[in-house]
Amino acid sequence: MSDCKAVATPGEVNLKLVKSNEGKKLVEPKLYRSLVGSLLFIGKQTRPDILNIVNELSRFLDKPDESHWKAAKRVLRYLKGTTDLRLTFLKNSSCDIVGDSDADWSGDLNDRKSTTGYYFKFEGNGGAISWEVKKQATVALSTAEAEYQAMAAAAQESIYLRALLKDFGFPMEKATDIGEDNQSCIKMCHNPLMHKRSKHIDTKLHFIRERVENKEIKIHYVPTEEMTADILTKSLPRVKVEKHRTVLLGN
Fold first, then answer.
1. What is the reported pTM?
2. Of the residues 4, 170, 186, 226, which has the maximum number of CB atoms within 10 A of its CB?
3. What is the DSSP annotation of 76-145?
4. How far, rounded to the nearest angstrom, does the alpha carbon of residue 10 sit from its chain's CA centroid?
5. Tens-digit pLDDT profile for residues 47-59
6. Per-residue DSSP letters for 28-50?
7. Strand order in the sheet with 128-135
8. Element at 152 (helix H, strand E)
């Protein structure tokens, strides 16, 4: 791969990977697992811009085929062309954290589960200090439900970060601001009434409302075009990758 041609995006737009079936040529599982494991380490430590596609690749560790191997090598080609990128942190007087939460509804073609993606950074300048990409444990029946489950995960992380900063002697003075691009999800987070479309959601998710009422988190609308967490839930075209990557890495 040292002589490979670099690409501008970590994942091919609109590509949906599926489990191998009879007739597909398989690749050596040990080699595939080694590569995906290394990419996961990079994605979780310093390069959140590759974490979505790598998270998807990690779902096929038991029986990878040529399509999975090709997608994994594409990530290497992307990294080769972006070796100068890194997380950047600037001196900042504010210790307040902000972030975005997003979900790719029913994006996994194998089981139709959705993907959660969120990140947090210090308000002002600098790259992300926390981020996550994870397939949701249950199937969401609507976009709003998928977004709500993602928001629940983001809210839990924000509470942890607030407690961590407090232990370090930097208590947050205001609510953690979290961006969301789904209006129905925002209404569910603020409305204490149980609507027909949301009453089946597990009760544990409704702790978001309590956190909003306690002014620990504040949820505001962000247009989809400006949703940085979008890069954590799906493969995007070059223009969007570069735009959201700049925010994530703080470059």
1. 0.92
2. 186
3. HHHHHHTTT--------S---EEEEEEEETT--TTT---EEEEEEEESSSS-EEEEEEEE-SS--SSHHH
4. 14
5. 999 999 999 999 9
6. -HHHHHHHHHHHHHHHHHT-GGG
7. 128-135, 115-122, 97-104, 176-180, 217-221
8. helix 143-167
Q: Are 177 and 150 in contact (CB under 8 A)?
A: no
Tokens (6 digits) for 104: 């790719």
Specify which residues 119 forms β-bridges with. Answer: 100, 131
Tokens of 199: 């009453």
Report the relative pairing of strands 217-221 and 176-180 from DSSP bridges: parallel
Residues sharing a CB contact under 8 Å with residue 58, sequence separation 6 or more, in sequence order: 36, 40
Which residue from 101, 105, 108, 152 is spatially nearest to 130, judged by alpha carbons?
101
CA distances 79 to 6, 13, 42, 76, 246, Å, are 8, 17, 10, 5, 15
Neighbouring-strand partners of residue 116: 103, 134
Residues in the chain: 251
Question: Could you tell me the two tokens for 152?
Answer: 């629940």
DSSP helix/strand/coil, 180: strand
- Angle subtended by helix axes 29-45 and 66-81, to nearest 10: 40
Note the pLDDT tens digit of each residue in 62-76.
999 999 999 999 999
Rounded CA separation 125/234 (Å): 25
